[in-house]
Amino acid sequence: MSAPLSRGSTLVKGWSPGFLVKLVLMAIVDALGVFAILAAWGEESYGILAAMLALLVVANWAYFSKRALPLKYILPGLAFLLVFQVYVVAYTGYVAFTNYGDGHNSTKEHAVAALLAQNERRVEGSPASPLTVVAQGDALGFAIVSDDGDVLAGTAEQPLEEVDDAGVDGDRATDVPGYEVLDRASVLERQQEVTALRVPVSDDPNDGSLRTQDARTGYVFLPSLVYDEAADTLTDTVSGTVYTPDDNGLFEAEDGTTLPVGWRVVVGFENFLTAFGDDRYATPFLKILIWTFAFAVLSVGTTFLLGLFLAITFNDVRLRGRKIYRTLLILPYAIPGFLAALLWSGLLNKSFGFINQVLLGGAAIPWLTDPWLAKLAVLGVNLWLGFPYMFLICTGALQSLPGDVLEAAKIDGAGRWRTWRSITLPLLLVSTAPLLISSFAFNFNNFTLIYMLTNGGPRFTDASVPLGHTDILISMVYSISGIDGSAPKNYGLASALSIVIFLIVATISALAFRRTRSLEEIA
Amino acid sequence: MTDVTTARRGRTTRAARPASAPRMSRAVWMRELGWRHLVGVVGVVYAGFPLVYVLSASLSDGGTLTGSNRLFADVSTANYEALGDTYFWTWMLNTLQVAIATSVGTVLMGAAAAYAFSRFRFRGRRAGLTSLLIIQMFPQMLAFVAIFLLLVGLGNVVPELGLNSKLGLICVYLGGALGVNTFLMYGFFNTVPKELDEAAKIDGATHSQIYWTIILRLVSPILAVVGLLSFISTFGEFIIARVLLQSESNWTLAVGLYGWVSSLLEANWGLFAAGAVLSAIPVLALFLFLQKYIVGGLTAGSVKG
Fold first, then answer.
1. Strands A167-169 and A172-175: what pairing?
2. Taking chain B, what is the end-to-end CA distance rounded to the nearest angstrom?
3. CB burial string A154-174: b at 16+ within 10 A, e below
4. Structural domain boundaries of chain A?
5. What distance in Å separates the CA atoms of residue A5 and residue A16, rounded to the nearest whole number?
6. What are the domain boundaries of chain B?
7. What is the H or E stretch that residue A518 is in?
8. What is the CATH number of domain A276-522?
9. Which CATH number describes the domain made up of B85-299?
């Protein structure tokens, strides 16, 4: 914030309109940045705070220093790149080596709090205090009167604290400033929420929480587990079992039983070992890996061949209506891919789809539900989607072939086939090879098509994880991550698989690009 | 006769007009051109029938998958009217907002970076270009888990950038802007002669004046290509939008239409068909009007995303 002002005083050149624009923009950026930093401070997110601070300092330096000319132009894109691409990739790498997922969602501190909260029970003979149900915005809360007559109120997020100037009728709070006292009808309406609500007694989870069964009387529930911070152990007050933290981010008793909530820890290569070694994942993984390669290679191959064939067909100047043919042929490419995949999922529907009902006269061919037919259907739809692209680039490549070389071949007496094989095709491959590699990489991760057309189905019958015959690696990652709630979350394994995909695609691209470079040298 | 046709078949005589060719016999015409028309017709039917079908389905009265099988059996706008009772137009607006903001941001940031790499010589320039080349090999969507977790964290601090926010989604898309497009633009910027900048500099123009008033005008074709490709790929992006946008009123078309088809394919079919026709129109129109640019952009190395 102070940077623009101090720069203003040492200003030499005068206030050109450009400078004013810069000043206003930077003032806005700085204001937003400072706001975010304060918010991060409030939330105790020190990582975000540090990153925001660094970005802000660099931005002010870049735009108010004379020595940072290139950075002025690169910085906006670079900032987004660093946060949403580089950091995210690095974070994927980190998560791949942790057990982040269901049961290991957060830090140890949160795990302890959750365990204490889950294992609470009403203390025998604990006093029953009259309780009032209150609300703060959408959040429900409880208010009670303490032994010395003060009113205490809180919500699930906010532990009980004293409220000043509250109205008390007998031993029941009737008016709580900052909260709205709910009447009987609204309490009945939200009965389930009320009985499920637990309001922590204090910041220390060991103190337990206030709960109610009838919305009129509150009881203090105490955890049956006690956390000993010094020894870092949890003790069950009923059975006396002592749980100590183990290497997997769980509290473990001596007999090996563990408590259900853990925290995330670095587990080394365990996720990679699971992907390749654990039968539940390794068997489908291998099948899916093979299919992913087959799908990507065949997709590129079929679309390229059809596109090339069409390009050759229409590369004749005498053909009338070439332009019209071309425009109509590239229509599938101009349709957003997700629409095409969804459209085809309807066309190929077994019972009602157009293909079965009309084109095949009422056949009931399970296009999307038979393992092999589904693979064929996926390839067929991708051919429809992808051939116009290949048609476009092949047409472009054919038209830019050097005429003199072809003429020279003709003078040397080369026939049609010979010219095609020895000159046209190699030249064509050189100019399209990089695009074929990109196309391979794109199809290797063609999530939209698979997810929308078959959703990976039909399911493997012999696998315990929700994966299927047309799943490719990226859709397998999506299923395993459990991010849409259809399966238990396993961010660690999903990230590990992302890394594997990246390594495969990067290796192939690198090898292929090197090879095409040698191709170019020959040509 | 045969000599003439062989010479023509070699693609060296592009200047020759078909009109000037001597009339061919029917058999020769069939062998030389007729089959091409045949292939063309078959190809157009193959490419076009799903599109004709979806148009017919969108106009059918019943709105079910079964009812859509008789092409143009009845023509009504019932499905289009029914879209008004759904979130469709909200999704359309969301998608256009996100796609336009992303493509404008991508063009601005990509062009600025390409300008710096092309015109300035600074420490770390080569390293920067190489790192961009490596970073762009990692598709952003592979990291969707990490993106999700990052936005959960950001949302705790600034809710406007967190989950379920279009602004957050745009920021994520912009993160991929530099990696994919800088090279495409960098090559094009290099073809603009440096002497132009130098002349302007001598005349007293500042670097920002050179950039905004000279360079950007000269490279406008590549700006159109990048903006267009970015618009189209954002328009159809699914996985990140699906992971990040949670409430129905914030969805994009890809997420919303998928929801219709995946939940009740048979019953929602007419609705989907009408939605599909309407959502294909912006992209289709852009594509056909700017075909020339796109073809150029494609051969310069970008892929539909």
1. antiparallel
2. 48
3. bbbeebbeebeebebeeebbe
4. 2-96, 121-237, 276-522
5. 16
6. 2-51, 85-299
7. helix A491-522
8. 1.10.3720.10
9. 1.10.3720.10
List all residues 6 or more positions away from A130 whose beta carbon is below 8 Å from its beta carbon.
A144, A145, A170, A171, A172, A216, A217, A218
Q: What is the largest CA-CA distance in chain A?
A: 113
CA distance B125 to chain A (A): 9
Q: CB A339 to CB B135 under 8 A?
A: no
Percent of chain B surpassing pLDDT 90: 30
The residue to which tokens 């604990």 are assigned:
A126
For A:14-73, CB contacts with B below 8 A are 18, 35-36, 39-40, 43, 45, 47-48, 69-73
Which of A84, A95, A410 faces B175 most closely, judged by CB atoms? A84
User: A346-388, pLDDT tens digit by residue?
Assistant: 888 877 788 887 888 777 788 888 889 999 999 999 999 999 9
> What confidence tens digit (pLDDT) does each residue in B153-169 have?
899 888 888 888 999 99
Instruction: Indicate whether A155 pLDDT > 80.
Output: yes
Task: Quote the pTM value.
Answer: 0.82
Angle at A298 between CA A293 and CA A304, to 5 degrees: 135
In angstroms, rounded to a whole number, what is the distance separating the alpha carbons of residues B63 and B57? 7
Q: Give me the residue from A36, A344, A442 closest to B158, CB to CB.
A: A36
Query: How high is the ipTM of this complex?
Result: 0.84
More confident residue, B250 or A114: B250
Dist. CA A18–CA B132, nearest whole Å:
30
The verdict on a CB contact (< 8 Å) between B149 and A91 is: yes
Q: How many residues are there in chain A?
A: 523
3-class DSSP assignment, residue B271: helix
Q: Out of A9-23, A183-197, A200-214, A262-276, which region has the weakest mean confidence (pLDDT)?
A: A9-23
Q: Find the mean pLDDT for residues A193-220.
A: 81
Answer whether A74 sits within 8 Å of B113, measured CB to CB.
yes
Per-residue pLDDT reduced to its tens digit, B225-247: 888 889 988 998 999 999 999 88
Residue A121: beta bridge partners? A222
**Helix (H/G/I), strand (E/B), else coil: A502:** helix
Residues ≥6 apart with Cβ < 8 Å to A334: A388, B280, B283, B284, B287, B288
Alpha carbon of A242: minimum distance to chain B alpha carbons (Å): 33
Q: Is the pLDDT of residue A3 over 70?
A: no
Task: Band the pLDDT of B282: cuts 50, 70, 90.
Answer: confident
